[in-house]
Specification:
266 residues, alpha+beta, flat, nucleotidyltransferase, iron
Length: 266
Amino acid sequence: MTMEVDILELSDRSAKFVLSKISTSFANGIRRAMIADVPTLAIEYVNLYDNTSVLYDEQLTLRLSLIPIVTDVETYVPQAECDVCGGVGCPACEVSLTLSAEGPVTVYSRDLISSDPKIQPADPNVPIVELKKGQKLVLEAIAHMGYGRDSVRWQAGVACGYKNVPIITIANCDACGHCAAECPKGIIRLEGAGAKVSEDDVLKCSICRLCEQVCDIHAIKINFDENAFVFTMESDGSYTAKDLALNAAKVVKGKAEEILSILDQF
């Protein structure tokens, strides 16, 4: 059985698609991989040379660590897995970003100067701190590759979730309108022959079954496909939504191959 993918919506930061002919465990594996297992660049250490802003050093460092950074997975590797330096830190697993500003000015993520032109904050308009007249901020931030399972700073996938594809069956409807009034998604409409749900609106169903509960003649039945799932996902900008989904699939594939290689030894 070959998995099928149907793209419903796709943009740089978000996507909605249907995965069919898969199990629930595989669907959840993809979701977890997007959130926790795709390596991402994030600021981990900050060398502060001058900070006379209103923020304590710790507060400033926390804000910097949560700024999403565009990630090049082909160039950089997680620090703990770096064969070049053994995890000490080198150009293969870390990037330096510097910042120097003096008030009065609002410092934004775009003011971070990266040592690698390809590695930049995913959103240039993230406010870091407002400097008043005479206040200064001079620092060097070190970004490392890491995993979302270790810290939220490395979590590239946000709002990643899925549900089973709904199946709505309507038969012998008397057009009383109770189901349409009860539906929280507003996808049930009344026609001369009774209640109807268009094909385009079926995927909007939340499978709450409120319409089924208020139907006295049991004309409407709500079920779901156990092997088909509607995915919705967003990226924080470290990857495009497409690249994040593809890298998540590669992670799941890599783990499966690793398990097979281990089992082959016995």
